[in-house]
Known about the structure:
Strand order of the largest sheet: 1-2-3
Helix content: 55-70%
Shape: elongated
Order of helices and strands: HHHHHHHHEEHEH
Amino acid sequence: MSAGHDHDSKNMSDVRLVWAVIVNVGLTIVxxxxxxxxxxxxxxxxxxxxxxxxxxxxxxxxxRRIGRRPADKLMTxxxxxxxxxxxxxxxTTLIIVGFYLIVEALNRFISPQPVEGWTVVIVAGVxxxxxxxxxxxxxxxxxxxxxxxxxxxxxxxxxxxxxxxIVAGTLIILFDLYIADLIMTLVIAAYVIYQGISIMPRTVxxxxxxxxxxxxxxxxxxxxxxxxxxxxxxxxxxxxxxEHHRALEAHVVPVGGSLEEFETLKAxxxxxxxxxxxxxxxxxxxxxxxxxxxxxEACQST
Length: 302
């Protein structure tokens, strides 16, 4: 993004993430123990979701630290994409957990087991408090980081899932409605899968070097072609170096033939790209008419 954008995730202390991981791991252990004691599959489902949150936060923390490493001879653009790799791992795991919960719920439906409602309600109540606290801790970093945003959304959904588990436990206490536990497990699993699938496409596109979602390729080409001094434009590529840094490469056929004129044209092009499209890294190469005729493939328009 442009220099005017404030990336809250960079300013968010790593200590918050560390504590969020510790709290969620502790909560996962409590929920699993509570689920085993009470026989509640929905409580174990919520525990697995919490564990995925802890893993997501842990990977986000690890990726942030790697992402701060400067560019070197191996990674000339730097290590900022480490967070995207971590996001892809987290989302894949989240989807797998969701399908696992569906299978377990169906198996439990075939072979029902008694559920201790009070244990479910008490443990889910503790989980609800912890989920809300964790969400508050990471909220500031969720505004500009795909990784942190995914973790934040997980925590919010965990809080909603905990509310659902409390409702299921209450129905078991009042009406012996044990099927409520299985229904809530399926609801949690469906929401977990939805979250993973909804965020996955953007993560994959960023890793594959696609044009950022918020940019229109044709508008960028038109803006460059409309500049005074541009006769033609070829070989245009736009991609994301990291989640917040974009890059462009283009071959420009200039009207003038002097080096001074082309340097002026490049400065105007870079100003337009940064001001209107927040593209800070632009490589613009001169492509003379004679050169394009003899090297048509190198200068072919994409």
